[in-house]
């Protein structure tokens, strides 16, 4: 079994770690990563259980995923910023709350501290959606992954093109570990990282206007938690804005990191 995360390192400059979403891998960053690497040094990871880290020994819990990413960041031995997309954003928030790693800047891309609705939290999806995905996953994980991809692109002006890109890249790093898929849905369903504690880290929050997974109202929670934050709403985009608008997303993030 592998013990280290698979990573691809490109570019030069400030170290930026890219964390992908559920069921995906680092290859999904595509053109966006290439554009970003023109001005910064990107570390594109395959999380445990996904892509080329499929065989990594892990229980695939949020703690285990966070431990693995923190271990990688510690090996860089230089200041880093994190870009966390969707599930990757939860890991980034968990790293921030654990306070073991000193991050320079935080970029949350189509993410949220809590993906499912609760009695005091309406800025999220219904629990039943994740329950249905979990049940379907046990029957046919490949079909369930494709349904999830479709949900991510729904509402985007370029939904058809985005879905084609996601489907083409889905297994380019190999098929995921089914246990990691199951555990990942549990993380998305059960994790609640909302906090009353304010954090002064420089944070960039990027949300898709048409995202069907992350309501725009989540920005109010982020603005409360991160007083030193900038919120950008990407018009006519869904849950994968870095695919529909790679140039625009990369430019905003490069400016934020280098300012």
**Proportion in helices:** 40-55%
**Cα-to-Cα separation, first versus last residue:** 41 Å
What's the structural domain tally? Answer: 1
What is the CATH class name?
Alpha Beta
Q: Can you tell me the residue ranges where pLDDT is under 50 for at least 5 consecutive residues?
A: none
Strand order of the largest sheet: 1-3-2-4-5-6-7
Number of strands: 7
Task: Round the Cα radius of gyration to an integer and report it.
Answer: 17 Å
Question: At the fourth CATH level, what is the homologous superfamily?
Answer: Alpha/Beta hydrolase fold, catalytic domain
Shape: globular
- CATH-defined topology: Rossmann fold
- The number of distinct helices, counting runs of at least 4 residues, comes to 10
Strand content: 15-25%
CATH architecture: 3-Layer(aba) Sandwich
Structural class: alpha/beta
Would you summarize the structure shown here?
With 259 residues, this protein is an alpha/beta fold. The chain contains ten helices and seven strands. It has one domain: Alpha/Beta hydrolase fold, catalytic domain (Rossmann fold), CATH 3.40.50.1820.
Q: How would you describe what is shown here?
A:
With 259 residues, the chain is of the alpha/beta class. It has one domain (6-258): Alpha/Beta hydrolase fold, catalytic domain (Rossmann fold), CATH 3.40.50. The chain has ten helices and seven strands. A seven-stranded mixed beta sheet has the order 1-3-2-4-5-6-7, sandwiched between helices. It is globular, with a radius of gyration of 17 Å. The N and C termini lie far apart (41 Å).
